[in-house]
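Worked Example 4.2. Consider the chain below.
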Amino acid sequence: MAALAIALAGVLLALAAVAEADTDAADVAALGNLYTSWNSPPQLTGWSADGGDPCGAAWKGVSCSGSVVTSIKVSGMGLNGTLGYQLSSLQALKTMDLSNNNLHDSIPYQLPANLSYLNLARNNFSSNLPYFISNMVSLDYLNLSHNSLFQEIGELFGNLNSLSELDISFNNLTGNLPISMSSLSKLSSLYMQNNQLSGTVNVLSNLSLATLNIANNNFSGMIPQEFSSISNLIVGGNSFVNMPASPPPTLMPPLENPRDQPNYPQGPISAPIDLDDKKQGLQTGSLIGIAVCSIAAASCVLFVLVFCLHNTRKRNDNGSSEPKDIIGSLAVNIERASNQEIHNNNHGNAVLATSVLQPTGKMTPERVHGTNVSIAKKTKVPVTATSYTVAALQVATNSFCQDSLLGEGSLGRVYKADFPDGKVLAVKKIDSAALSLYEEDNFLEVASNISRLRHPNIVLLTGYCVEHGQRLLVYEYIGNGTLHDILHYCDEASKKLTWTTRVKIALGTARALEYLHEVCLPPLVHRNFKSSNILLDEEYSPHLSDCGLAALSPNPEREVSSEVVGSFGYSAPEFAMSGTYTVKSDVYSFGVVMLELLTGRKPLDSSRERSEQSLVRWATPQLHDIDLLAKMVDPAMDGLYPAKSLSRFADIIAICVQPEPEFRPPMSEVVQQLVRLMQRASIIRRHSDDLGFSYRVPEREGGAGDIF
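Applying the procedure from the previous section yields the following structure tokens:
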């Protein structure tokens, strides 16, 4: 009996261990998504894309605490692929080391929020540093070195009070250092060498650093006196004013002071750096020589200026050219440079290449002085945007004929363009009447900025045309129509919008808005978010259009127009009352689109009785009543949806359409809730398929439809 009892106890302990090892479902789904995104590499033994038990089955590189994943270490495993889109589900993950692989594309803009150690070094990640890093308050170690990251760093560090080591070296990062770096009170090691960073390094002067490597950038100004306390300092390859220079090899004997040696920038500096104090000042003869050279150079410049003025007047007297105000032009250039310097000082740490600056109506120097500077000379459109001729676009659209017309918006019409090489694109022909003079001049800058937006749920701008007074934008072609048309005008197509598909559309568009609001710096407000601007591809994946075009619309502070900054029915209350439009206004419009997906109704429908004409006003009181909610559902779904999923969907809508902007959630929170909803739906769907359950909701509450 005793032996039997011992054996039985062993079995029970084993069963308990297995039960305890059963991994959290969200963690399993996230690791499965990673495995798929890495093309199911065989070297990751134990991993699976179809469920499993990472904590109980000892997946390679995965460590757990109880039933949650706490560590993923797969450095140098030859992984090839992306990081997927479910990393944020790993809520208990503390350590993630994916260094020394061949991972590529952007770093996801949602990462595990509670990480303390993140190493993505020596991969091939591109784009910018994700803004979500600013929320990772437990982060102690962050290494993103040896990738292809570019654009400005952004204000990411204000809340990272635990960060002790940061390595962003060997990338292509540009711009000034963000002011928020001065908040890194616990930072001891900072590596930023081999980038294209510029400006001063004053924001680092009060940090308690033991190691600082800022070599091979474009930094300028003074090396702060406080750097003298940094034991391991490397500053070479910059343009600091007080950078110690190597001594001439023949004119002077070698200096005994090690700080005067050629390799001095690789070591610490004294405070302050003052060559006079080191008795290395210039001799009197050298000073006289420099003074003479300076006078000679100034004389040459004056001579050239007088010569240019003389020739200009001579040409004008001969009538060979229009009069030119040289002094006026110089003043324009000086004022433009001054304005640019002020703009950079005030905003240089907050503007990324993905930003689309909103027009302010301020008179430009060109207007003040009456010069006619070509916009093409002022703005360099990136090579990613192709320049088209009007003739080529006319041929591709059959002279913009009615048969090629895809749709029409507040800025103009959109045409399908079939090119001789077989490529199919969409051309938006901007109505010149919709643009003021300022927006016309600003067109190429806006096109350049929009072309840099990179997100799988945002329609890609591939080209532009500025010719013969025409302004056109060329986009990728998304061929399955708009969400608005499918919901409201295509009965057969709307039946293909299953519940899962509708949630997927909501999640995809939420991710697009999250990118605009929380990845682009400063945040990019869409201003015209509605179902007719959501294009669906053949797999019914959403693609948000018209992103960044608000910069070409009349300033909402100048002119409040529903045609310009959103259609009535989608507009948030604060816009209707005061003309103010923010990211929270986009969140409201997103809630309205979710209501469309839920009900199949238009935001405004004058054909209905008065109490039901406004979708938000009619639906909001019913969102928390399960019986009334079921009656609101789009009949095209034929009752095929899980009731609890419907209820959670309605909860998200309710917080998005709050009348007060401050009570609406950020889009990152909306994305997280929709991701959880999709994950639960996926798990329940697999379970119900195994058991033969139906998703049809019965007439009364309960039953198989209420399994979610």
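The first strand starts at residue 62 and ends at 65. The mean pLDDT is 77. Compare this with Example 4.1 before moving on.
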